[in-house]
Amino acid sequence: MEAQRRFLEEAKLSQVVENKPALVWVEPSTTVASVCDELRLHNILSLPVYSKETNEFVGIANVADIALFIAWGSVDLVRKQKEDKPQMSEMELVPRLKFADRPITSFFCIFDASDSVYSVLEPLSKGYHRALVRLTPQASKPEDYRLLTQTDIVRFLFANRDKLDQALLSQTVAQAGLVQGRKNMLCVSEDEALNVLQAFRRMTQRDMNCIGICDKSGRLVCNLSASDLRGMAPDRLKMLLLPVRDYLTAMYGETLCHKLYPITCAPDAKLADVMESVLAHKVHRVWVVDETEQPVGLVSLSDIICKFSPYDYKASNTAPATITSLH
Question: Model's pTM, two decimal places?
Answer without folding.
Answer: 0.85
